[in-house]
Amino acid sequence: MKILSVPYYIGRFMDGLEVPSPHAIMTPDLPGDSLTYDTSRATAPGGQAQLRMAVLYSHLASHIASSGPTLLYSGDCLSVIGVLAGLQAMGSDPTLYWFDAHGDFHTWQTTPSNFLGGMPLAMITGRGEQTIVEATGMRPLADDKVVLVGARDLDDGEDAAVASSGMVVASVDEVANAIPPPGPIYVHVDVDVVDPSELPAVNYPAPGGPPAESVRAAVTRLAATGRVVAASVSSWNPQLPRAGKAAALTRSIMDIFIDGDA
């Protein structure tokens, strides 16, 4: 797999994100305030951030579509929209395995904070805010094409939305011991799925998670199918204490896609 670095967090460049060298490719800086999408597309709070990410992840989608299998290191989970748009442009319709301590399933109706980083999985399944999805040309995934893995910290309203959805909700151990569905697979790992006592330097730590070795076992199970068309990481925060440990542990999980040539 080619390794790509997209070191942006909610549309803003983040310093210090280290990825496996020498394979990393840095995306170009966003083009100032010259945005290619009309501001009327962003009607909810945070509209400027959505428009910046529309530019960034449209660029990412084009890169994915022309690059083949890719392992992406990114600053947030919203980058998955760009990856999916690129995969769909290639004619791929993957099952998405979403490893995360959180549901990322808020809409403007349920969010207590208006934080876009709490919404990407809802966006991907066609719910709520759709500015970035529409801009990239991504087609929303059906619920039954999504497996939410390891989620344990869901807000009020978000928990009900997940429970009433058609997504598969699974533990890390269940994924490690199950037979994946047929067809292509996309694996996304938000590193906060690992218990923060072992993997520090995450923005929203959620105690009570699985050990890194269990997450690696689940990821290995998926990689072993030979059907993983993309993998991505929502990274640690390089500005927080013990970021170096988080980086090393993340690589120990995701290197299976390099070592195993998934």
Explain this structure:
The protein has 262 residues and is of the alpha/beta class. It is 32% helix and 15% strand. It has a seven-stranded parallel beta sheet with strand order 1-4-9-8-5-6-7, sandwiched between helices. A hairpin with a 2-residue loop joins β2 (8-9) and β3 (12-13). Mean pLDDT is 90; it is low at 31-43.
Give a brief description.
By secondary structure, the protein is an alpha/beta fold. Helix content is 32%, strand content 15%.
Keywords:
9 helices; alpha/beta; 32% helix; globular; two-stranded antiparallel ribbon; 262 residues; seven-stranded parallel beta sheet
Tally the helices: 9
Estimate the helix proportion, in percent.
25-40%
Report Rg.
Answer: 17 Å
Task: Give the neighbour order of strands across the main sheet.
Answer: 1-4-9-8-5-6-7
Give the low-confidence spans.
31-43
The proportion of residues in beta strands is 5-15%
Give the biggest beta sheet.
Answer: 7 strands, parallel
Query: What structural class do the secondary elements suggest?
Result: alpha/beta
Mean pLDDT: 90
Beta strands, count? 9
Can you write the helix and strand succession as a string?
A: EEEHEHEHHEHEHEHEHH
Distance between the termini: 7 Å
Gross morphology? globular
Give me the secondary-structure topology.
Elements: E1 2-6, E2 8-9, E3 12-13, H1 47-67, E4 70-74, H2 79-89, E5 95-99, H3 120-124, H4 131-136, E6 146-149, H5 158-164, E7 168-170, H6 172-176, E8 185-190, H7 212-223, E9 228-234, H8 243-254, H9 256-259
Parallel strand pairs: 1-4, 4-9, 5-6, 5-8, 6-7, 8-9
Antiparallel strand pairs: 2-3
Helix pairs in contact: 1-2, 7-8
